[in-house]
Sequence to fold (183 residues):
Amino acid sequence: MPPAPCKVRHARRGDVPIILQQIRELADYEHELDAVEATETTLLSTIAFAPDDVESTSTAPNTESTTPSKPARCLLLFNEEDKPAGMALYFYNYSTWRARPGIYLEDLFVRQTERKKGYGKRLLVELAKEVVASNGGRLEWSVLKWNEPSIKFYESIGAKAMNDWVGMRVDREGLTKLASLLD
Fold:
């Protein structure tokens, strides 16, 4: 089924309130609204944005350069009424075994009222096109184990669970402690 009519483009600086609102809606869906630390200021300083007067698509990204301090890009999806309906916030990664670039999808979100219209699939297709256009090796992301509807959707488009892998993370005080472990 093709998605409902929509437009997908890279986020612009003026879209930051939309991005923050969707981050908050996603966190609420995941029962973690109190954990959101993102602000408009921090998003402005960490996302590579497209210029206001230029269309930037997945196969022809025209955004600020990504850097270690500005590593992310964001695709926004607008519905047939030109209202924000979803987003894909992502950054680039690398496969050592394949020696090829890829994309890590940090967050995929479609507003509750806009689900079942093919918008999530459209955002993933756009990211896959960017990976293919860059001769990349993979598109990957994580999903909460309890989120069965999303897991089934991802499997329906060909994604495979990485059950042999365990996610690891060091953050907050643990990150500071690790950074000074050999001091």
Remarks:
- Residues 15 and 21 are 10 Å apart (CA to CA).
